Amino acid sequence: MQKSLGIGLLGLGVVGRGVLEALQGNARAYEARCGRRLDVRAAAVRNVAARADLAAGGLSLSDDPFAVVAQDDVDVVVELMGGETPAADCIEAALSAGKSVVTANKEVMAKQGPALLALAEERGVELRYEASVGGGIPIIGVLQRDLQANDVSSVRAIINGTTNYMITEMSQEGKAYAEALSEAQRLGYAEADPTNDVDGIDAAFKLAILASLAFHSRVGPDDVHCEGIRSLEARDFVHARDLGYAIRMLATARQTPDGLDLRVHPTLVPVSDPMAAVEGVLNAVSVSGDLIGSVVLEGPGAGAGATSSAVVADILDVGSRLASGQAPRRLRPIDPSPQLVPLSNLRVRTYLRLEVPDRAGVLAELGAVFAAEGVSIASVLQTPHPQRSQSADLIVTTHVCTDGALQRVLDGLELSDSVIELGVRLRIEDGCDND
Ligand SMILES: NC(=O)c1ccc[n+]([C@@H]2O[C@H](COP(=O)([O-])OP(=O)(O)OC[C@H]3O[C@@H](n4cnc5c(N)ncnc54)[C@H](OP(=O)(O)O)[C@@H]3O)[C@@H](O)[C@H]2O)c1
Fold this sequence. Notes:
The protein is α/β, with parallel strands linked by helices and about 425 residues long.
């Protein structure tokens, strides 16, 4: 047997603790798989005093992650602190020192992944990030390796368990947004500040990582059009169901003739779509390519066990390569500035919920606003407003039109005396859009 592989763990939270327990609990099996023993030599946390139990067990603890990175007997750095700072600097320091890195950090990989991967390649070491998207779902390796023979045309994903849980509760239990959020917080699925989840920022980080891999392009979170779920009401799920749809927080990356289309927003998908069946905190990713057709991966997108599964697999792979003296995997060249499709050019169908005064003539007035922009209405449903007796809810779906034309309709509706409130606007994805 070769000398053991020294691991430095940065972070011992939900994931770090899970990784430590897996490495300790399965030490013999991993040693056999990897060809050398995996020794956690040091770990960094913010509050060392709170981890006295681990220190008593012989683990060297520090509140300085850079000191762990610099430790001579640490060969591989496993970054599980989260956030951009100081995580990105720690990863850069490790790579610069010729140490391979495993991370679960979507924010760092979405914002700085291409530069850090280039640094790893230059230094002849590995930077692995399987756990950064979809928790336990092995989608990064699938895109990097298993689907590399394909020309990928699209990636569609549910990659935020918090919003999928909330949406499921609103849809199945009729819960209001606020109620679904506090339930998610009580169960530990949502943070005290849920902004990154409910506004789609977390999903945009992950979509940027997936799109970079799928389309061999430098895609950052700012390239992703992002809308959150705050304006959804429980009754939208009922109306959507009556129309044959489920609502999902969908992350979509498509290669179109005019460039990349990158979006995260709540979307109406047909009830027969595999994404409609993804419920609760589960995640799913569907990839379409010229050879494979479509493949869907579904599974737990978070949690100590599932995320450790991905992190430890990366550690084992890096360890095996080091043990056998294999060179790091070569990266495919990427397009540094891919063409993006302007949102206004996209062709979409739309679902609108409007609060309107319950009086004669409203439909004709609103119809004129749509007609002025050449947007054709597919269906209209009027129902009593749940709180205000003088108002009605109007549920309008449109035929395919450009996003820009629909936006001009919304601007017109905003100014119209026949609209009390623009409730929600959702895009419908049913295969006839964007042809
Ligand atoms: N949780 C999941 O299910 C999940 C799933 C997929 C990916 N991830 C990713 O995995 C990473 C870790 O997530 P987590 O949920 O395990 O986070 P967490 O529970 O908040 O744990 C973070 C850990 O990092 C330590 N830490 C943070 N900043 C530090 C600093 N400046 N110096 C030293 N230690 C520091 C914390 O120390 P203290 O313990 O002293 O506070 C804590 O041990 C994140 O990138 C996250 O996005 C998480």
